[in-house]
Design a protein that fits this description.
By secondary structure, the protein is α/β, with parallel strands linked by helices. It contains eight helices and eleven strands. It has a nine-stranded mixed sheet, sandwiched between helices. Strands 7-9 form a two-stranded parallel ribbon. Strand 2, helix 2 and strand 3 form a beta-alpha-beta unit. Helix 1 packs across helix 6, helix 3 crosses helix 4 and helix 4 packs parallel to helix 5. It is globular. It starts with a strand and ends with a helix.
Length: 222
Amino acid sequence: MDESRVLVMGGHGKVALLALPLLVEAGHEVTAVLRNPEHAADVAETGAKPLVADVEQLGVEELATLFAGHDAIVWSAGAGGGSPSRTYAVDRDAAIRSMDAAARAGVRRYVMVSYFGSQIDHGVPAESSFFPYAEAKAAADAHLATTDLDWTVLAPSRLLDEPPTGRIETASQGATAGSVSRADVAAVVVHVLAEPATIGRTIRFNTGATPIPDALTESDLA
């Protein structure tokens, strides 16, 4: 995707704050949606435009109005380990509403930031505190795959606060769940927007040996 208008949901999250300046540097006009107005200055420092809105409270029509005029949506929002009810409300319900809203607003490109193990048969025990998140992400990712959007699900391994390496390994290359820096995840977000080969794919990845642009080509994702 050439220079475009990109809307990042969850704009004050750790991955988003790393992705925003990279998106701006790539030439995109970037708006970051965040819930807490006290965080707007942090977002503005990245070069992105902060927009205060609570995705948990917005319906499909309101989200569609928010999305109108943009070229791509990046969903990096989440409840952040809150209560199970809020996890379902944000990571599943609001995410699904955003997909329906993107379709209604005519915004075809949609990138979901998920996690490596996200799938319907995720295997997380019901008694685990991680179960609501696993269930919510699985439902949201599954819904996205049924839409007509130009979607990509990014499924990184355990996230680390380490410097970027610029290199990853995808499940298509044989990667199993490991770890990856948030900085590298942010770089992957930017690169998938520019790589049509990533459309319609779930990309599971961790730190590896392949430069990010090379790992996201048609041949490496096959």
